[in-house]
């Protein structure tokens, strides 16, 4: 599988479940919001965090080169299993076309090594 290391650092944010729906700032290139009965989570680039959110900064995203077919199975397992074996925690975001696996910035080099050892092709940040 081909992955690209995204250049910008990311943040994972938590708001109360009843918080107003956040809007991405103009020009945002990554902004994912998910509401459950317990919370409203936002994944975005650092600096784009919604006001009042609890923020966990310092994440880096590895984006699966897509688009991926909906009937393709095992994508996240093929990424998360070698990362778990390397003792690297992940936060996963899925979109219509692809998946992003976020790892803490301090784990990025080890994550790339683990994914390459599992036969994935990991490209450096573009641009």
SSE order and pairing:
Layout: E1 2-16, E2 31-35, E3 39-45, E4 54-64, H1 75-85, E5 91-94, E6 99-104, H2 108-117, E7 121-123
Give a quick summary of the entry.
With 127 residues, the chain is of the alpha+beta class.
Individual helix count? 2
Major sheet details: 7 strands, mixed
Shape: globular
Total strands: the figure is: 7
- N-C termini distance: 21 Å
Cα-atom Rg, whole angstroms? 15 Å
Question: What is the CATH class name?
Answer: Alpha Beta
Mean pLDDT: 95
Measured by DSSP, the beta-strand proportion falls in 35-45%
Order of helices and strands: EEEEHEEHE
Q: State the helical fraction.
A: 10-25%
- Low-confidence runs (pLDDT<50, min 5 residues)? none
Looking at the structure, the CATH topology is VC0802-like
Architecture per CATH nomenclature, i.e. the level-2 architecture: 2-Layer Sandwich
| Secondary structural class | alpha+beta
Q: What is the count of structural domains?
A: 1
CATH superfamily: VC0802-like
């Amino acid at each position: 599988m081909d992955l690209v290391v995204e250049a910008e650092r990311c943040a994972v944010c938590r708001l109360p479940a009843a918080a107003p729906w956040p809007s991405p700032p103009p020009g945002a290139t990554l902004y994912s919001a998910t509401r459950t009965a317990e919370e409203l989570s936002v994944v975005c680039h650092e600096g784009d965090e919604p006001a009042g959110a609890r923020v966990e900064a310092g994440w880096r995203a590895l984006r699966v080169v897509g688009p991926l077919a909906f009937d393709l199975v095992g994508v996240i397992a093929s990424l998360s299993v070698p990362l778990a074996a390397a003792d690297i925690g992940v936060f996963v975001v899925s979109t219509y076309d692809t998946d992003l696996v976020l790892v803490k910035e301090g784990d990025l080099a080890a994550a790339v090594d683990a994914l390459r050892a599992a036969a994935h092709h990991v490209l450096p940040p573009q641009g």
